[in-house]
Structure formats: structure tokens, C-alpha cells
Design a protein that fits this description.
With about 150 residues, the chain is an alpha+beta fold. The protein has a single domain (about 5-135), classed as Nucleoside diphosphate kinase-like domain (Alpha-Beta Plaits, 2-Layer Sandwich), CATH 3.30.70. It has eight helices and four strands, in the order E-H-H-E-H-H-E-H-H-E-H-H. It has helices at about 10-15, 20-30, 45-50, 60-65, 80-90, 105, 120-130, 145-150, and strands at about 5-10, 35-40, 70-80, 115-120. Strands 2-3-1-4 form a four-stranded antiparallel sheet. Bound molecules: uridine-5'-diphosphate. Uridine-5'-diphosphate binds near residues 63, 93, 112, 114 and 120. The site of uridine-5'-diphosphate (UDP) has 8 residues, from loops. Belongs to the NDK family.
Amino acid sequence: MEVERTFVMVKPDGVQRGLIGEVVSRLERKGLKIVAMKMLRIPKEMAETHYAEHREKPFFNALVSYITSGPVVAMVVEGKSAISVVRNLVGKTNPVEAEPGTIRGDLAMDIGRNVVHASDSPESAKREISIFFSDDEIVDYAKVDEDWVYER
Ligand code: UDP
């Protein structure tokens, strides 16, 4: 079990629907540590960079338009195996298939309005964190509950 950092974002629909607290709360209650967080409106070019792997997909333009349509809340989240832990909390891309108990399974209906983003690999986590945060925006600190969340 390696300590990892992953990039998580409440998308514009999540912000508009008042789900920032719900998403952050689920991450915190799991035992994950938020080490960076900010609200921003994503510029078009930044959205195209973030979703570069989908550039040729038919949904690319709609995706860029969705993600730039309003403010988002971007986070860096830390914990043991954080990348897969967060992906499991988030659920499948299509909310129709996402399991109940997951964020998308509980809170979303449509693949084009699926509330959250989370990195899917160590490479994408590193890349996405560097798009949204500079090194000095990520805070290194110990949390008081760490001995209760992890068996040392
Ligand atoms: N997406 C979409 N239509 C699709 C596939 C994906 O609108 O047919 C959007 C959806 O918002 C998804 C994002 O594109 O979250 C990125 O897709 P990816 O396959 O990377 O899914 P994720 O990693 O977000 O689960």
C-alpha cells in the first residue's frame, strides 16, 4: 500500500446542484486527506489539455463545453492507494451503470452530467495535478486521525 495523490474535481453540475459538500464529505469520511483545493472556472484551452486523450471522440466538444460551463472545485487528495480508492468511491463513468453507494450511482443520471472527475492512473494523476496546481499550492501536513485510519 503506497501513499498516492490523485486529482479530484467537482464538475459544474455538481457545483450548481449544491453537491460540493457531499463529495468532499464522502472523501473525508473514507479517511482520505485533502491536501489542496480551489474553485475556478476552467479556461477552454486548459479543458482541452485536461481531456486531451478524448480529442478525437465524438463527445469531445460537448465535454469541453460542459466542463467550462461554470465553476468547478478542484482538489488533490492523498491516501494509501488513493487513486483506486477514489475511483471506487466515484463509480463507473456512466451513472446508469454506477453502483448504488458510489457518488455517480447515488447522485447522477447522465454520462454527460456525472458530477465528478477522478484520475484513473498514477500517470494521469501526476499530469492532471500539474495542470491544476503548482507545487506550492499542495500542503504537506499530518492529520490527527491517521493512527486510527491506518494500521501502522
Ligand atoms: N463522457 C461523455 N460521453 C461519453 C464518454 C464520456 O460525455 O460517451 C464524458 C464524461 O463526463 C466522462 C468524461 O467524458 O466523465 C471523461 O471520460 P472518461 O472515459 O475518461 O471517464 P471518467 O474517467 O471520467 O470516468
